[in-house]
Amino acid sequence: MRRRRWQRAAVQAACVAITLFMGVPLYLIALAALSSRASLNRFPLPLLPTEPSTETMSTFLRSTGVTGGFLNSLTVGLGTVVLALLVGVPAGYAVARYAFRGRDTYQLFLLLTRALPIVVLSVPLARIFLDAGLYDTTYAVMLLHTALALPTTVLITAAIFVGVSHEQEEAAMIFGASPVQAFLRVVAPQALPGIAAAAMFAFMLSWNEVLGATVLTLNQRTLPAQVLTTLADSPLAYRFAGGLALVLPALVFIAVMRRYLLNMWGTTLR
Amino acid sequence: MSSVVVYNLVKTYAGGDRRATDGVSLEVADGEFLVLVGPSGCGKTTLLRMVAGLETPDSGTVSIGGRDVTYLPPRQRGLSMVFQSYAIFPHMKVRQNIGFGLTMRKVPRDEFDRRVKRAAELLHLEEYLDRYPAQLSGGQRQRVAVARAIVVDAAVLLMDEPLSNLDALLRLQFRAELKRIVGQLGTTTLYVTHDQAEAMSLGDRVAVMRDGRVAQLGAPLAVYDRPADRFVGGFLGSPPMNFLTARVGGGALAVGDASLQAPDHLSTWEGRDVVVGVRAENIQVATEPAAGWVPARIEVVEPTGAALLLTVRLADEQLKVQAPATFPAAPDARVHLRAEPAALRFYDPESGLALDA
């Protein structure tokens, strides 16, 4: 009895520690970004928002290329999600359901695309996109990010489709459904959490990816690429503001998708 | 009208080196309950899936109600099915699960409600219609699967080991209920099981399968009483049929030192060995010797409640004998056995086939 209580306390403590580990940096960035410039240089640093101010944030948002970068990032991120799902979900279904020649090789090959560093890939890619007239467009970055996101999309959705028993699809077909109807009515609703997770990964990957986006664009920079290129010669406050601007949309996206994710892990939080 | 005729079905799975079904032909008459029974890997489920349209045969035909459906998709065959894993849809409430077939057929709302209600009543599911399957017990899920299958009023009902995931007590209860429901509906039914007791109790006829072929097809009691080969006798019945080797000589059968009277039709086997098959309940047992009774030694005594199951040694052979529950039996005791000549079956030791009377 006593041992169990200790175990529970330890689990609680671990949860708190992990939450702090993730939460404290977020809090500090938000604090710095939303405080006045002057308070940043004070010592010791105040840990409570004593002097809230939108000055830093508004300066950052008004600086060149930030709004454009933000919109580009959003376009690329959502485009990546759509493309990755469009290609990845059917691929995941095929991997999960059909025994086809070279299936194992295919799965390995999928992971290999992540084995090459983007630095190595991006120069030939830039060349190809230049030739194709796609260089310095959001499409180019979108395509690159789709390629990067596809392995996870395929593997996650495949794992989810394996979880929906094939007999359920067969039952649907016995009771009058065509194969497409069986997929839409029986498999897709159950696979939704997994598809949401895959979408989330794709979006995060695209949102965070810097190198490829930097190499493939000049003017159509995504936000991270924009921030990265201007970071070195910007004041500290700008960096904090940039950090917050990068983190926030990702947090919002996770919050929206969380419902489906929890659903996948068996918690019913409807 | 809705007989199922299977003709010469052959199916080899990709990567498999032997045929899952090897030229199976059989006919399920309209309204008949036919059970396919056999050990795992005998091809019974493959056969059912080909009838359902979930597998395509390499050759042969399937017709339902006189219509060749061999290459039609499942939804155009006019049948319904109960799956071994139930295969009910976890994201739909029981009502939507039962009514799935009606939804796909675009049945109007009021008729949908009426038919789902009737099926739910038949299977005692009225209270659960607004629950999700995760909130049901295994037995209730199985009822949902059966309700979903009968609500569509299909001409042919297929069942793939529907009771195998239930615990023993529930299985026994539901078996009787299933028989009642299917009997009321009068649907042509093809039922797959590996449980010989289920096969015996449910089927109008039983097809015992082995290695992709039908070993014997007939009424349960006929198959039980006169197995066409050693395999069927050993598979049907609990305990399985006893087999012992006997030498035919001078109108008698010699088992070790003991001797039994040989029937006339074994005269062609004079001087050769035959296999004698006899059911445990057809062996009489006594403690005192008498003329024509054969002595044996008890090895194991297993009370089953209604009877005693004795394992006895007769010469070099081991036999299962069913004795009355009151029989005074103890291990190592001597007993005397006898069987009616009419209860003895004879098999060719080489081919295992029954020797005709």
Automatic annotation (TrEMBL), chain A:
Family according to the record: Belongs to the binding-protein-dependent transport system permease family.
Subcellular location: Cell membrane
Record's keyword annotation contains Acetylation: no
One Pfam family recorded for the sequence: BPD_transp_1
UniProt source species: Phytohabitans maris
Domain spans labelled ABC transmembrane type-1: 70-257
Membrane topology designation: Multi-pass membrane protein
Keyword Transmembrane helix: yes
Protein name: Carbohydrate ABC transporter permease
Automatic annotation (TrEMBL), chain B:
Top-level lineage group: Bacteria
Name of the protein described by the UniProt record: ABC transporter ATP-binding protein
GO terms, molecular function: ATP binding
Keyword annotations of the record: ATP-binding, Nucleotide-binding, Transport
Stretches assigned to the ABC transporter domain: 4-236
Source organism per UniProt: Phytohabitans maris
Lineage, broadest ranks: Bacteria, Bacillati, Actinomycetota, Actinomycetes, Micromonosporales
SUPFAM superfamilies: MOP-like, P-loop containing nucleoside triphosphate hydrolases
